[in-house]
Amino acid sequence: MRGTVRKITLPRRLVADLMHASIRVPFVSLTRPLHIRTLQEARAQAAQRPGWAAIFVKAFALVAKEEPVLRTLYVKWPMPAFYELPRSVAMVAIARIEDGQDCVLPQKVTAPDEMPLAEVDALIRHAKEAPIDEVPAFRKILRTTRLPLPLRRLFWAIGLNFGRQRANYFGSFGVTSVAAYGAGQLHAISPGPFVLSYGVEKPDQTIDVVLRWDHRVTDAAPMAKALNRLEQVLNGEIAAELRSNRQQSDPKPVRAVAT
């Protein structure tokens, strides 16, 4: 059958490179509904509601601050080893439309646990709305994607297998979701070591979360505990920050003075 040859766009080439880098990662996954009633109430009353991506990015980083294994990478050079990072680096999957085609690009958020939630949300929104050339993380990864295939493979190998470069280029965890397009569980893959995806809010005040991880780094029991702690952080620290921001934005009552 005669068809039409179409050029692979730069964002699709990036996804192809990403899948090639992910093919040998021994991922396992755990799915669990998280109860988020307290968080929902605090978010509903917030003056400016942050997106769910920002909420999960900061919440996971707060959990990783307590649990070093969530900041640990598996690297191969100069010899196979674990590389523990001093802080988390999130890579957020940003869905965009470029040249009339859907694409996904990674936005880097360094140490989101040390940032106000509003600032994390602003970084993600900027990546969704700004021109590609104005987003540093996009420029950096697409610059490499423009290289010929042999050079791309070399750069990816260096970026994936040296601990310091791994964090700079690929972060310590990823966050992705298709909740904006309806319900469904997304079991994404990446070079690792951790990928978190979330679904839509349900009437029973839960939200499904899928956590995938590199089995070379850790086992299921610590990840189950991490999801328990994530639920606590969402309803604890994150909800408290939303309430605090609301109180700061509320106008102070004017005290009447008798004359």
TrEMBL record:
Question: What InterPro entries has UniProt attached to this entry?
Answer: CAT-like_dom_sf (IPR023213)
The name this protein goes by in its record: Acyltransferase
Output the superkingdom of the source species: Bacteria
